[in-house]
């Protein structure tokens, strides 16, 4: 049962029901604000890649949310990352904590957990999207594709790499999205290749195929990465995206073709360029961006941790400023920018790291893996994998009083 100890007049519209949106709704409620979440999709997105949390900042935040134990109960099997050749022989192997951090969970499981935590006190509107934002001294007047116009005190874009709120407020995404020259696709498939707890990564020049089992054991997640010039495609046309992936992966070795035969029937599918969002500011007037919408990276930038951390920081700053969005947004940007930059530095190398473009660079990367897991250098590997996640101190917000108390 949730017991409210105070009321707060501030009402906030959040665009996006992925991870950052529900996390922000959680913290806004705890700090005495009310939230409405609008999501274009008809429901929560299931499946998706495994996401991890690592380091003190992540764990402190999850502990304060009361989520850490529940995430541990839903954690993925874990295991090493084994780089393999076309015959399945291991060429190099990285420890579980490098890829899975302190705790790892499927993205869909985490999204469901956050939704379950917040649905009792959050208005969720699925199957709708924002079409217009008019920022005034009294609030933000919002029009929707289907719903009636409404006015909110604040609007927060938590709507991902291709943020609609960012486009409406700051301009076309081409001004802010920097592509890396790589694309990534993720889909679910039956575990017909007998994957155990370990993750396997097979490479050919400019191509990577990663597969890992899920908690159920009878299904796996497949991640495909490939180097490419910019591709012109519709972000909402999944059939077109599947055709692009099938064409690129045709002829790739190991057991890739066995996995690709399951692509057409996959119930969970994601496809996008590996890109980084770079902006001079994350807010304008009564409108602000969090997570991938403001400083995202498609993969490799600890996006789940970033989403939850940014939601925590923004809500805490609003509470500390007693709802004064001007002061809160300025402090939020000051606190989050360095952290976002540190995470993005890791993400910018994700494509070449997971799918080196040449045979020579493939060999160099595999030799580097072996060196980093040998003897005293294994500590360096752990440091590399957690330093960006720890580039913020969230303990400063433990003194911000919560206005809603959670009771059992």
Describe the structure.
The chain has 408 residues and is an alpha/beta fold. It has a single domain, classed as 3-Layer(bba) Sandwich (FAD/NAD(P)-binding domain). The chain is built from 14 helices and 20 strands. It has helices spanning 20-30, 55-65, 68-73, 96-100, 107-118, 164-170, 238-249, 256-260, 292-295, 303-320, 325-347, 350-354, 359-372, 378-386; strands at residues 2-4, 11-15, 34-39, 50-53, 81-84, 90-94, 103-106, 123-126, 130-135, 140-144, 150-152, 154-157, 177-190, 199-204, 207-213, 219-227, 269-277, 283-284, 287-289, 404-406. The protein has a seven-stranded mixed sheet with strand order 6-5-14-15-16-13-17, with helices on both faces. It has a six-stranded mixed sheet with strand order 8-3-2-12-19-18, with helices on both faces. β14 (199-204) and β15 form a beta hairpin. The protein is globular, with a radius of gyration of 21 Å. It starts with a strand and ends with a strand.
CATH architecture tag? 3-Layer(bba) Sandwich
Please, how many domains?
1
Low-confidence stretches: 1-9
Estimate the helix proportion, in percent.
25-40%
In whole angstroms, the N-to-C terminal distance is 6 Å
Specify the CATH homologous superfamily.
FAD/NAD(P)-binding domain
Estimated radius of gyration:
21 Å
Mean pLDDT: 89
Based on helices, strands and strand pairing, what is the structural class?
A: alpha/beta
- General form: globular
| CATH first level | Alpha Beta
Protein name: 2-polyprenyl-6-methoxyphenol hydroxylase
GO molecular function: FAD binding
Organism: Rhodococcus maanshanensis
